[in-house]
Amino acid sequence: MFFSFRALLSTSLCSGLSFCMLAPASALADSTDLMSRSTLTGDWGGERQKLVDKGIKLTGEYSSETISNLHGGIKRGTRYAQQIRIGAQFDLSKLLDTPDAGVVQIIINDRRGHSATEDLLGNRLSAQENYGGEYTRLTEFSYQRNLFSPDLSTKVGFMVMGTDFGGMPILTNFVSAGFCAHPLTMSSGSGWGNYPTAHWGGELRYDVNPSLTLQTAVFQVNPEHNARPSEAFSMPSNGTTGAILPLEAIFNNHAFLDGQYKVGWYYDTSNYQKIGSTEKSSNRTGAYVLFDQAIWKDEQDPESVLRLFGQAATSNAATSPMRRWYSVGLVKQKPFANRPKDTIAFGYGRAVINSRTRDEQEAAAINFGVSDMIASLDNGEQMLELNYGAQVTPWLLLRPDLQYIIEPGAFYGAKRSNALVAGLQVKATF
After folding, report:
1. 226: three-class secondary structure by DSSP
2. Which one, out of 2, 259, 287, 390, has a CA that is 20 to 30 A from the CA of 71?
3. Any idea which fold 2-429 has?
4. 107 with 140: CB under 8 angstroms?
5. Which of 329, 61, 96, 289 is nearest to 186 (CA)?
6. pTM, to two decimals
7. In Å, what is the CA distance from 389 to each residue of 59, 172, 340, 400?
8. Which residues does the chain have with pLDDT short of 70?
9. Is 166 helix (H, G, I), strand (E, B) or coil?
């Protein structure tokens, strides 16, 4: 156990330090103090702000997640995964000196490393939210602008639908993909695109009033493109099997104990094979409810807040191996008076396997003479996560993390011991 945790710390910190050394010497020589500037590379001697004033904003982010399996799962060990994301935003109103000309956004994402879930744990809910293979991928090339009024806006292009639908910012306080991002029932039971895989699409958003927003979209469904890391910069239309149409209502509570609630539904027109059948389903649907609500706030210090979040999602019964997802948790913002940007996060989640998938597992188990093992499996996977997010500088976050996974082999018809993992997430903005 000691060796695994030591390996975890040394791998993460060494990788983070190596990344920091990539910054140009001229950038690190910025007049602003390294520990107080908003980004690692600073303002580039004033050039960065000059670009923003002209309408060009350049961004860069590094994140790594090192996970050690201390007990259970497949085997003990440590795995490291990283993500580097660079982007450019072009404000056409400034660049063209034309009012309300819109914004062009470009994002490129590079992922490297190895999966602790695949190699060590054998579970369904990935312990690393930033793992997704090894590739460099165009994640977004979009154009966004208002239509007729500031209350109505549209966004079109090649982009990830989950950026604006089905998620909540509070969930970025977690390392596991079970929490961070959207409920995994969506991508399990439809053509919903996981970050960072983009698809052609268009979005429409209407702010009815300060408390209510309605939005919808249409996105290409292209399962073949999802699995093409060698064609990461292509924006294909071939391979399209249909379209997915989400509808979402966002309710904002602006009281002292503020909150946000999302209710969504989606429809996928693709034909997809039914589980345990040679027939195909002519459509796939799903629904979800998400909320993030402050339940306590220090009246003398409004930054000190305790927030409650929850998720409930259901997917297509005929085609989705993950039938339902539930989660609930707490995030304490500003846990200590002298740590205003730190967080403590705790979450519990449960993914429920489709009964049709379990029937297939049981049939296969009979053929291999291991039916007793399948019978003893739970009908889903559960997980708990506890972490501390330490904002060391405005541009550097360190997040020590613990996860406990119950029935890690439930979705694969395998009996595996409950797994205990320790991890470290490093995030840097450059």
Report:
1. helix
2. 390
3. Porin (2.40.160)
4. yes
5. 289
6. 0.90
7. 22, 11, 11, 7
8. 1-32, 225-232, 367-373
9. coil
